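Lab meeting notes turned into a lecture example. A postdoc, R.K., suggested we walk through two folding results consecutively so the class can see how the record format repeats. The first protein's sequence and structure tokens come next.
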Amino acid sequence: DIICIGEGEFPMLDLMDALDKKKDYYHIQNLWVKKDSKVIKNPMRSSVEDLDVYPIPDRELYYAKYSNLRNTQTKSLLASRGCPYSCSFCFNKKLKEMYRGKGKYVRYHSVNRVIEEMQYMKNNYPLKTINISDDIFILDRKRAINVLDRMIETKVAIPFFCLTRSNLLDEVLVRKLKEAGCVGGWFGMESGNEKLRQEVLNKNITNEQIIKGALLLHKYGIKFRAYCMIGTPGETLENAFETINLNIQIKTDFPWCSIYTPYSKTQLVEYAVKSGFLDKSATNNPSGTIWQNTV
């Protein structure tokens, strides 16, 4: 009946208010609403640039009902929203286009707010590790170091995981991650073939940067997961083995390999169709996709 385009906090609030007051909700920004046989596609509102206007998530909404969520030893938080990169297989490029002209796409919670939420979770729930779920926690190097310093100063430091990016890692930053309690630094490798990674996946990370980043993480005892995929349009069996070999070379602690899924409207699907790897009709088929040839 209703779907939300883009971020949903304020659209959901507007919808709940309208339902409570039995008012029309067909023209709420960000909502696409089914009315009779038509779909009303409302425009998107501007992004909320000050993320601190949102309260700390009310986890009790879930924990009161699902004790397994309350009792799990790992809890997650978001310290930022958005990713500036345009990897061809990812939704971010399309979402950035949707928000063009509507404010900042990459935004951050204040350092104090991040520490406050960590402290709240530490004081109120079973907690052994924190998963910082940002697309790239270390994206703004100066800010990341400020967060890490505050974690140390306030003694809120607790073992945590975060997503990194090989080309953004340096010795000072990795050492600071270690001091603040980082036990896992995940990053995307995608493919061991540099040409495929650069020209098809638009990852803009070299093998040298991946190797250098891995060496730093090993040096400071931070385990890492390398996200990889096979079945990328144009990949050969030899390319797939390059991915295996690069993981062996950098001694990946947790190699993670997925099979490429062609998500409609992404840049890589357009490339796959244009190159003859994917039937065009499959891009509008919600039940699956049809590959034209195997690799």
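The second example is placed directly after the first for contrast:
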Amino acid sequence: MIFLRHINFFLCIVFLCSFNVNSQEIDNDYVVVIDPGHGGKDPGNRGNGYYEKNIVLNIALNVGSDLTKNNKNLKVIYTRKDDRFIDLYKRAQIANNANADLFISIHCDAHNSNAYGAGTFVLGLHANERNFKIAQKENSVIFLEEDYEEKYDGFDPNNPESVISLVLMQEEYLDQSIIAADYIQDFLVKDLNRKDRKVKQAGFVVLRNTYMPSVLVETGFLTNKIEGKYLNSSKGQKEIAKSISNGIVKYLGTIDAKKLNYNSIINTTKGTFKGDSNYIFKIQISASSKLLPLKSYNFKGLNNLSTIKSNGLIKYYYGNTKSYKEAKKLLNKAIKAGFKSSFISVFKDGGLYDLKKYLSEFE
């Protein structure tokens, strides 16, 4: 799997770039959305009589407290701060409306064996039956929502094939999601000596419609008597929260808040760009590790589609024009079709070219 190669690479970064997270302060403005799973009429799993919804809420609140304690420039938003039920799609909306830099969904696992340990997940195709079962358990929450068939376009948590439709939306952020998940996993394992259940991919609905790097954390197994007791304790919840917050801080330290946002440039730049006939513009609408047939029904009615394989991912493009002005129109059409994270890509002599450089050359 492509994500395993990423993980091996980023594990090297973890070991080579160790530092004291507790003393690090975030210099830039960031927004982190923390999602305590379940809530209200959805108790989550009840392993050993515990309530997952209460445990993950306490962990989430502790994570937020840890993050903001030493980082005044970091804003934390919760999908819920008390015992209430929130539709899965609304959790993503909260993150999108906040223009979040990172989305973290916190859960506790369950199994009919004496399994134990912590694991983190990013959205993707499940590699095995166990990963599918974990996603199936978390996705079954949609059955508690009204009109779930309409909200989730007929998605069936019990059908493995339905997961394929989830993947395109988030894999554009796959690399960054893996980095964040890897840092969180590393702190959970090293700081707390937890069994390492690794960073994995699976089809979680709650991660589908977030337009930023997103990670789901399975903090441990309530069905394990020893681990369940630890997860239900104030000490355990605070320790787990500290490891998660340490991973988040380390991740935020690797990204540049001032990095160029191509969509912002496209929407705010004034004037006419004459350009050059050697340049071709296309709209990148998504990226995936799986090749989907270039049929309009797979891409919300869009035609004139093409792909490029890069670093193990297949990038999907819409349109093909030599006019930058026309490219902006195509971008708006892609966004209206539902690909809200789309952006303009420019090619020169058959290869991908830096859009920022192009704009500076022809402004």
